[in-house]
Amino acid sequence: MTDATATEPTTDSKRLKVDVWLDVACPFCLLGDKRLENVRKELPFGDDIDVVYHSYQLDPSAPEHAEPGSQEAMLLARGYDPAQLEASHRNLSEQAVAEGFRFDFDAVAPSNTYTAHRFIQAAASERVQQQVLDAIFAAYFTDGVDVGDTAALVELAVGAGLSRELAERVAADERTFDTEVRQDIAQAAAYGIQGVPFFVLDGRYGVSGAQPSDAFRQALTQVHTELNA
């Protein structure tokens, strides 16, 4: 993959696919996704962009369940400097506000995200993936919800548009959409992805990290132009 640079857009309407690897416990993933979505809404060809989300786990060893508000203690126990952690959270919060989101790091329950990824995979099958992802992001980073709790995930997903029948099937059987999660993680390894968020435009260009909005705008414009040349 190569980095994308900017060119002028065309008026053609070939669809541009953007594959996004992320983890719902990653604040940079949330920022990157919000920037991508806000830029997409601004672009004249934004309606011709299809975004597909893929599973990735930053910490597969995270506990299945965690108490709200326990993230800071966990990070400090791992050796994070308190002043640096506070500065990082403040900086992330300021960036999030600019994208229309509010972090509440004091409320976060740092539970394992694997089950949440199965719900996000299920949401793709009913074309409500963005809505379910947004709901889980908000639950994790603002509302202090334990996203390892399948009952909570059912209500979050149904509230975001997933059918209750499918949501309850995901909750009842750990094998449901397990293969899709594992395939995404394997694909990330094949691409050499070592951190998220990671964006793949048209299967050809890789964009790593929560890039500034201008970087997303330039990359999307270039690839859309190439598709319509």
Task: Report on this structure.
The protein is of the alpha+beta class. It has a single domain, classed as Glutaredoxin (3-Layer(aba) Sandwich), CATH 3.40.30. Helices cover 49% and strands 10% of the residues. It contains nine helices and four strands. The chain has helices spanning 27-42, 71-77, 82-98, 114-125, 129-141, 150-159, 164-172, 178-191, 213-227, and strands at residues 16-22, 49-55, 198-201, 205-208. The protein has a four-stranded mixed beta sheet with strand order 2-1-3-4, sandwiched between helices. The protein starts with 15 loop residues before the first strand and ends with a helix. The model is unreliable at 1-10 (pLDDT under 50).
Query: What is the averaged pLDDT score?
Result: 92
Tell me, what is the CATH class? Alpha Beta
Quaternary organization: single chain
Number of helices: 9
* Overall geometric form: globular
What fraction of residues sit in β-strands?
A: 5-15%
CATH architecture call = 3-Layer(aba) Sandwich
Task: Kindly report the name of the CATH homologous superfamily.
Answer: Glutaredoxin
Instruction: Outline the low-pLDDT stretches.
Output: 1-10
Helix residue percentage: 40-55%
Nearest-angstrom radius of gyration? 18 Å
Strand/helix succession: EHEHHHHHHHEEH
Q: Could you give the order of strands across the largest sheet?
A: 2-1-3-4
- The CATH topology turns out to be Glutaredoxin
Give me the count of strands: 4
Major sheet details: 4 strands, mixed
Distance between the termini: 20 Å
Structural class: alpha+beta
> What's the structural domain tally?
1
